[in-house]
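Weekend entry, working from home. Most of the wet-lab plans are on hold until the incubator is repaired, so I used the time to fold the two sequences that have been sitting in the queue since the last round of cloning. Logging both here for the record. First:
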Amino acid sequence: MTFSPGLARYRCTVVRDVQLIIDRNTRRSKGFGYVEFYDAISVPMAIALSGQLFLGQPVVVRASEAKRLTAAALSVPPLSGDFTSTVGVPSECLLLHNMFNPNTETEPDFDLDIKEDAQDECSKFGLLKHIYVEKNLQWPEQILSKMTQDIDMKEQLVAHSDSFSSPSPTTLQHLMDIYGLIEIGAYAREVRRIVRAIRWTIQLRKKLSASVISPFLDFALVPGSEIHSRLSSYLPKVTNPELTGDLAEIRGNLLMLHRRATLRHDELGQETLLNLLLRNYLHYNLYDQAEKLRSRAPRFEAHSNQQFCRYLFYLGNIRTIQLEYTDAKESLLQAARKAPVSALGFRFQCTKWAVIVRLLLGEIPERTVFMQKGMEKTLRPYFELTNAVRIGDLELFKAVAEKFSGMISLADIARKLRLDSSNPVADAESIVAKAIRDGAIDATLDHANGWMVSKETGDIYSTTEPQIAFNSRIAFCLKYAQ
């Protein structure tokens, strides 16, 4: 029985139950509700009150549709016969009806609010496979059939997820959706959208990190604006271990990810993480640990040419330190041959190591090795060293070694420091000169050739510096022992 509040006991018999319809956002009454009497004779008496004034307002009283919906729900076929072939497994579907009246709902997306509220409550009792809200009132068996079709479709998608999987939305995409809800809700003054955005934000709070929030701020705000700069200042700075030299700190995470990729049979992920771990170990000269990891890791299947080239290069480094020059030569030459033409830096490293290994094997590299396009200048020291070995001149070999020992190009220093000024070489030279003056490094500058030449490190124990340091420490201890 639909009624206006306050009319339940007016000129009627005893009321059994009263239910007011409350707005879920404002928590205020919507102005109507349902009343249930103990006897059926009270229903026409209550309907006769429709149109009369109550507290100065005309009221509308009409019969409720709950009885008709209940009868329709009871007319669903029993759990036998062909029921399973038409509407699916009965134990997986639950029909909730009489939750709203589509004739009185004015918001266009009111079904989304009901869906989210029901999903939150039902999830407390188990895993919710699917939920469907029908905005237009239908017969219960039609709703159950619709739910069963959706469930079957989802099960088919899950069964084929190994070969056809759709990418799940990322945390950044969820943040963009929340931003859209807030923007539309603020413009249209719809509280339900703001409430939904708050609910989504609470669910995502554990997934938020600086790497996600930073691009979201760039999307939502104008980069460089005052509010963008103020919010960005609260984010922790994301440092790259490659630039800071803190590769040892991420080694545990790399090992965990490599183990996870192995368990999931992610072969490309295994190869990529194996190369990262090998580079991590070689950076700290941990050649034995790198070889143990390489020997126990799954066989490298070369799913990516770039990763295979890196693997061959690291393998050549390990074999060189282990004095297995023949295997090292094959790995390094193969890495240089398979590397892309545009990867000049990588090809130079492979060629440099290969030249050294071939010289240790007693071989003389061909002249064409040093004349490769784009690497003539960088391979010049190794060419002169190879020429001295070819003619067997020991004095020339020492002269070449002394000539290029401890020499670092200022252009390389500018590139390592990421100097992007108009004249980065001059800036690098100024930085090196200040470091030499402050005593941070022991070197000299060759301005004409653009080199920084490190001074030869002598035997410090042949000087009096250790004795001076030892005496100062003894004097310090005696001073505080008195």
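Second, folded right after the first finished:
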Amino acid sequence: MQTMLRSASSFAATQLASSRLRLLFPAATAAASRSACRPMTVLSKESGIEHRKENWSARKAATGRPVSPHVTVYSFPACALSSITTRVTGCMLSFGAAGLGLVELAGGGGAAAELMSCVGGGAAAGGFLVAAGTKFVVAFPLSYHFLGGLRHMVWDAKPEMLTNVDVERASYALVGASLLMGGAAAVV
């Protein structure tokens, strides 16, 4: 017992002395500690050098174990896909607005409105199909992002609606309503 107390007190004294040295000579002790330390590894120095030379794929193939699967093998829940789509549609709308702004800046006053009326009126090559497709490409993200925002406002106001069944049902309803709104805007 006395040996343990003596070793504990000598350890505490060593720690106190080293902390005093760090306070008195911070640059010197930091340089000394950096040179004395090496990265922790379970490999010997020689095997560590060989380990760095090998290809990662070759090392994994040599183990014979399967590589951890990527996200493509997992089935995302409808709510996760709906949330991702809300973010993607928001980015699409931002890029679309920036593109129209650039058209306006490059073409002068009224260039963006003229472009939209040309495409929307079917005057572009392809007629009705191009106009309907362009309208859908604009209307779907706009309606999806807007309805997704409304859905989140309702969930924030009424958190009791956040059950697994209701969230999945709301995600499917969001996709359906957005497709209907986008389709209706495409034929108008």
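Plan for Monday: verify the second prediction. The chain has a mean pLDDT of 79.
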